[in-house]
Amino acid sequence: MAKHGKTYVESLAKVDRTREYTPHEAVKLMKETKRAKFDESVEVHFRTGLNVRHADEQLRGTIALPHGLGKEVKIAVFAKGDKAKEAEEAGADIVGAEDLAAKVQDGFMDFDVAIATPDMMPIVGRLGRILGPSGKMPNPKVGTVTMDVAKAVQESKSGKVEYRTDRTAIVHMTVGKTSFSDEQLLENYQAVLEELLRAKPSAAKGKYIRTVTLASTQGPGIKVDPTRTKDLVESETASAA
């Protein structure tokens, strides 16, 4: 079994692993237990009761976080002609067609989001084994296969992120940075939670969101009470008063 370092053990000792913290308690504790000197990402993991082997119990969609992710999002666009120019003018970092597909085939993955026009999908589709596992495959269901590439680029740059269940029915999301204020993290967290509740598959049975865990990149996981879903920022303000 892997051994943890001294600082991790010290951080873990501050967390009651048997307790489900309120969201604002979890945010404060997460900041207390962060270990790195750099600005760590803040991650939240939702374990659902969905049976993802059934197509009608899978979750996938996008959400625009109120305060973004706190980092510059690098965007690659597969497009030609006027649409390629439109993507460049909208702020895309990499734009190309067959040439970009060849670079990806050779291992180039230095981007966070991939967008494609519909006519490019026969070419982009061949990259499924490369882009799929990393969650970067363009998909019309989440707005990354579109003729309106300018809008797609602008939305992604402003903090629109994709979510989906993995093989174990967990949704992993980044909701900001440890440098964000408590209020910003709570508002981003609440936006994600409300979106998952809104998108609950009609075929879902039993308890939908079973556990929620919050953590910084190198910090310990903190259990969050999944029943706390409303007025999180107001609750945080009231408890501080």
Automatic annotation (TrEMBL):
GO MF: rRNA binding; structural constituent of ribosome; tRNA binding
Pfam families registered for this protein in UniProt: Ribosomal_L1
Top-level taxonomic group: Bacteria
One Gene Ontology cellular component annotation held by this UniProt entry: large ribosomal subunit
One example of a Gene Ontology biological process annotation: translation
Keywords annotated in UniProt: Repressor, Ribonucleoprotein, Ribosomal protein, RNA-binding, rRNA-binding, Translation regulation, tRNA-binding
Region described as Disordered: spans on this chain: 219-241
Entry's family note: Belongs to the universal ribosomal protein uL1 family.
Function field: Binds directly to 23S rRNA. The L1 stalk is quite mobile in the ribosome, and is involved in E site tRNA release.
The protein's assembly and partners: Part of the 50S ribosomal subunit.
Listed name of the protein: Large ribosomal subunit protein uL1
